[in-house]
Design a protein that fits this description.
With 258 residues, the protein is of the alpha/beta class. 31% of the residues lie in helices and 21% in strands. It folds into two domains: 40 residues, Laminin, CATH 2.10.25; 210 residues, von Willebrand factor, type A domain (Rossmann fold).
């Protein structure tokens, strides 16, 4: 009988032991990466754990309609629900845009999921135009600045949710966001223009761009979610981003079941 080396304690893994037939391998908890010795672990981002600065950029234009805007808020909160929110892990910011841009709350203002979700629920619907370019410029210039709570050395993720063609120019701001190292996800519903979404999305576009015909069929974008971003990236950053992608995929699957 082959003994389970993890169960017997006959291993030298610092954090976690994973049994394999007749052997074992070491693994690390969330927020840590395995060192080259295959045994010990190092905290990601200089001890910040699975740190992530995430800002939602939400279309509040008239075409969204109030009932769908409530679905968008639910979408945000279900993602927030599955994050580890703290000063050392995930921080969440929220920006709504229509004919103008309004910061609902900056990164780090709320220190726990309960407070973030309450603020999202209170967000009022702007119900005007669609100035996506102006919103992207705000994201680059303000949302991910230190004065608005962004942390140095922490992965920055922006998720843009829109349902229509922008009424202003987006190319420069979209390029600047990606050139700044922000990982940009573009989610489009309804009349959203696919070439604009692709322009917003980070490379590879197929992993960062999602579209569905209407809010009721949002589950279809789950098929487009892929997890192939870890090949040439820092393992700590990868872990944070892949966790984010997985949470979005789980959320979409749950919406499909309702």
């Amino acid at each position: 009988v082959v003994s389970d080396l993890c169960a017997t304690g006959d291993h030298d893994c610092e954090q976690e032991c994973v049994s394999t037939p007749g052997a074992y391998r070491c693994a690390c908890r969330d927020g840590f990466s395995l060192n080259s010795d295959g045994k010990t672990c190092t905290a990601c981002n200089g001890g910040l754990g699975s740190a992530l600065d995430l800002v939602f950029l939400i279309d509040g234009s008239k075409s969204v309609r109030p009932e769908n805007f409530e679905l968008v808020k639910k979408f945000i909160n279900q993602i927030v629900d599955s994050l580890e929110v703290s000063d050392r892990q995930a921080q969440v910011g929220l920006v709504q845009y229509s004919s103008s841009v309004r910061q609902e709350f900056p990164l780090g203002q709320f220190k726990n999921k309960k407070d973030i979700k309450a603020a999202v629920k209170k967000m009022s619907y702007m119900e005007k135009g669609t100035m996506t370019g102006q919103a992207l410029k705000y994201l680059v210039d303000s949302s991910f600045s230190a004065i608005n709570g962004a942390r140095p050395g922490v992965p920055k993720v922006g998720i843009v949710f829109t349902d229509g063609r922008s009424q202003d120019y987006i190319s420069d701001a979209a390029k600047k966001a990606k050139d700044s190292g922000f990982r940009m996800f573009a989610v489009g519903v309804g009349n959203a223009v696919e070439d604009e979404l692709r322009e917003i999305a980070s490379e590879p576009v197929a992993e960062h761009y999602f579209y569905t015909a209407d809010f009721r069929t949002i589950s279809k974008i789950g098929k487009k979610l892929q997890m192939k971003i870890c090949i040439e990236e820092d393992p700590c950053e990868c872990k944070s981003i892949v966790k984010f992608q997985t949470k979005v995929e789980d959320l979409i699957n749950s919406l499909q079941q309702k």
